[in-house]
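User: My instructor asked us to take a sequence, write out its structure as tokens, and then describe one feature of it. I'm not sure where to start. Here is the sequence I was given:
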Amino acid sequence: MNIMLTLGNLSPKKGANRERKRVGRGPGSGHGKTAARGHKGSKSRSGYGVRPGFEGGQMPLQRRLPKRGFTNIFRKEYTLVQVRDLEVFEAGSRVDREALVQAGLIEKKATLVKVLANGELSKSLTVAVDKVSGGAKKKIEAAGGTVEG
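Assistant: Let's start with the prediction itself. The structure tokens for your sequence are:
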């Protein structure tokens, strides 16, 4: 008789799942008394553990390697928009942060916006963002648009 396999009668293959080792449950278990930790020493104590990167007193790798560079805490992160992306706007419209968010070109959380010169523009637009590259400014003005700010 062949029984159809369904979600209700699935079970793992015999021997695939082992029972969890329960230590410290008496001498009959084979893991009683010292609970498989051996005798004495720091590893036998509760709360034992070394911090990440600790190499037993040897100078750890993160201290052996030389330091490189620095982090500029005044760095400004710009969200980039390409000139070709501005084609979605109608001719004569004003392109600012809010318009870019509504068009789905940038995320709402984007703080600073910069327009780069990749692609072509065939419409006259008024672009008012935080930064515009030199090439992008030329392309926008060549299409009859203006750059504010």
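For the description part of your assignment, you could build on this observation: The chain is about 15% helix and 15% strand. Try explaining in your own words what that tells you about the chain.
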